[in-house]
Amino acid sequence: MGKVALVTGASRGIGRSIALGLARDGFDLALNDIDRQISDLHEVAAEVQAIGRRSLLVTADVRDKTAVHGMVGQAIEGLGQVDVLVNNAGILTSARIEDITEAQWDDVFAVNAKGVFLVTQAVLPHMRRRRSGRIVNIASIGGKRGGPGQAHYCATKAAVLEFTRVLAMELEDSGITANSVCPGIIMTEMGKVNLGDQASIEKWEAATALRRIGQPDDIAGAVCFFASDASAFITGQSLNVCGGVIFDGG
Ligand code: NAP
N or C: the chain end with fewer CB closer than 10 Å? Predict the structure, then answer.
């Protein structure tokens, strides 16, 4: 039996690219998204199967603990195991701090921070029993250097980065690693919040050392690395995949 990866928010954008990248690397896929994305999720499932790997749809709202435990149970029962968890599902809203509503603050924390915690907690007993596993959390460069108009979103991503560090510490010699990937500005539905017009695109291209906007496959490459044997000695780290918008240590 091949290895199995569970990817949240896999119906489109970065999650879809991660799922297809992992399928090309030989993983079978448990594909999660929220119920309303079911038809796009079916298309990704078909693409995984076209690559020659098995796929299983495990819809659930990552904010809902009961649904999350059901999703992980379905994935293990349906595909036999979960070797890799990619916590990718996320939402973004923009508002300056004086204008962020309590509902916006709570929503973005519920999906981006609590969702990562709930799915991780649900998968850990299974990975610990097998003494093997890879957890890859999708954070953001916004969690490291902030971004005006998105304080609530950036705070969730800083939370994901710290959660991942502590997770790696607590995992010690469990055989499980935990790392974060920090995308820069990536052309997806969410990315369009920051790339709404040509002027914004050009501004971000100019602010990026490699002078282009990132694509979902750029992120998939880093996640596939963390899912592979090549990263066996790396845990508790974060990798910026941003074309040089920010630089390590500066
Ligand atoms: P996207 O195109 O909006 O895709 C995110 C997916 O997650 C959507 O299908 C979304 O469904 C789903 N989702 C939302 N809430 C969910 C929930 N409660 N349970 C399960 N699934 C849920 O976003 P993306 O750009 O691919 O982003 C993927 C990840 O990368 C996110 O964590 C994001 O914060 C991070 N990131 C993105 C960028 C960028 O520039 N794009 C930069 C840095 C970090 P709905 O659309 O129906 O809500």
Answer: C
